[in-house]
Write the structure tokens for this entry.
Amino acid sequence: MAKQELQKATAETADTVIQNQVGPSDRCRRRLRFGINHVLILMNMFSESVKRRKRGCPPGQSLQGAAARDRLYQTAIRMISERGYEATTLREIAKDAHVSVGLLYRYFPRKQAVIIALYEELSRDFSRQAAAMKPGKWRDRFLFALETSLRVLQPHRTTLRALIPILVGDPDDGVFAASTVFSRVRVQQVFEDAITRSADAPRPPLADALGRLLYLVHLAVLLWWLLDKTPKQRATQALLGLTEQLLPSAALALRLAPVQRFVLEMDELIREGLFGSPAAA
């Protein structure tokens, strides 16, 4: 509405100028009015074009960007799997993906960003699949979460093996680093829920402490699985079988006061030593 009023006022002003400056010649008035009308049309087209550009990227730009990022991510993961983390550089990733280093930096400004993206992908897939966990005893729900984690990680085993030094020993990008806390909490929450929402859940705070402890047991099993040299990780399957046999006895032992105190004190050490604070999640 304001634009229309402005155009109307401009046109009226132009007519006044024409009447005052050009005089009674109809031919001159028509020529000048024709020129002014063209100027108004061009102004209108320009303003509409500017408004459209302010609305965002052209259609398809975000899809192209997502495709470019995914191609770079897949290239980086493959090269880390083949060469190792330290031996893979961003420049080599860009060269292998046939893109400029500048474009790579746009999506992954540092190599660690690739690892964080991998954590995000794997923890998201695990959380989604673990949502199918059925009601039941905590030991059965824990086994389901553990087996789901192994199943989600199986296609990435070679890459994760190359990342063992980072996962375990890197204070900035490892499993317990501040930069990856979102991924750890997402996975850890599944194991806590497996205990606290089970049919035979211990009372708080023992249930939460047990969930965190079993999350660490799950990490230990994953490390065993990554280092397992037996064909088709047969030793890992045997370890899962032994764990399943042990869990009923562990459930009975958890009723004893000394065992409960051990779990609670161990949980305090875990939160302080690995999560950064006794009050950490």
Observations:
- The first helix runs from residue 2 to 22.
